[in-house]
Specification:
Layout lengths: L1 H10 L1 H10 L15 E9 L2 E9 H5 L8 H14 L2 H5 L7 E9 L14 E5 L5 E5 L2 E10 L7 E3 L1 H6 L5 E8 L2 E8 L4 E3 L1
Pfam families: ZrgA (PF10986)
Organism: Pseudomonas jessenii
Protein name: DUF2796 domain-containing protein
Length: 196
């Protein structure tokens, strides 16, 4: 199933190209750029298997992007991790679908994981005077795999709990592949549900 999520960006390429053309001035036309307030969700429903992959700047979820050193920051990171470890509550999947979590992975430098060398988690920039400024761009990645006894009951995916629990998240860019095809949708707190 992991290969389905890996194939998702290629399946969604026509949408990505169209979006990049519309947004060429924003973030230099790069999709998936680190933008505070914006999360990304890849969703694939294949037979009885549902995979969800959430990526978000840490700022949206914990309120900061630096490694937690104070007790208050460590407590905040632990609380967010605990919420992310309960995907059935987070994604509000219909009970009738009978979905159970088969696998979940959480990754972030804030959780003690080392960032990939290719990721843009750190940027060094120089101001007009030539002084270097170091900016942390920590992300949180959550990957969930569910087995659903009655996948036909998954008519929609409700993301309202994400907006409620993480109010700094203003919108989520969703790429979804389901029985009715593929779609790219931008979801907000006011319109937090999408149809499979």
């Amino acid at each position: 199933m992991r290969r389905l999520l890996l194939a998702l960006p290629f399946a969604m390429l026509p949408l990505a190209v169209a979006h990049a053309a519309d947004e060429h001035d924003h973030e230099h036309g790069s999709l998936g750029a680190h933008e505070h307030g914006v999360g990304r969700l890849n969703a694939v429903l294949d037979g009885k298997t549902l995979e969800l992959e959430l990526e978000s700047p840490a700022m949206n979820l914990v309120g900061f992007e630096h490694v937690a050193t104070s007790d208050a920051d460590k407590a905040k990171v632990a609380a967010v991790r605990a919420q992310l470890e309960k995907p059935l509550a987070l994604f509000n999947l219909p009970t009738a679908a009978g979905c159970v979590v088969e696998n979940q992975e959480l990754e972030s430098p804030l959780f003690g994981d080392k960032p990939d060398a290719d990721d843009d988690h750190d940027e060094d920039a120089k101001d007009e005077d030539g002084h270097e400024h170091h900016h942390d761009h920590s992300e949180i990645h959550a990957h969930y795999q569910f087995t659903c006894a009655t996948p036909a009951a998954l008519k929609s995916l409700d993301l309202a709990n994400i907006f409620t629990r993480f109010p700094a998240t203003q919108k989520i860019q969703v790429q979804l592949i389901g029985p009715s095809g593929q779609q790219g949708v931008e979801v907000t707190a006011k319109a937090a549900a999408l149809k499979f």
